[in-house]
Amino acid sequence: MIRLKLCAVMGTKGLNARQLSEATGIRWNTIDDMMKNKSKAWSVENLNKIAKELGITDASELIEYKEEEQEG
Question: Which of 5, 14, 17, 70 is deepest in the core (most CB within 10 A)?
């Protein structure tokens, strides 16, 4: 499963969803959903805005792949 590490990155920068929203122009609840990995799709435009604002130069700083845990 591909996940965003947005919550962790924002924590190291001392930012919350409202602050990142104001800085990027992305709705705060969209950012909140991205932080909680509730979003099923992310727009490239939003990812670019977030990466620029957070100073991310490598996609692996923001996105990771983890195998899904098997139930049972």
Answer: 17
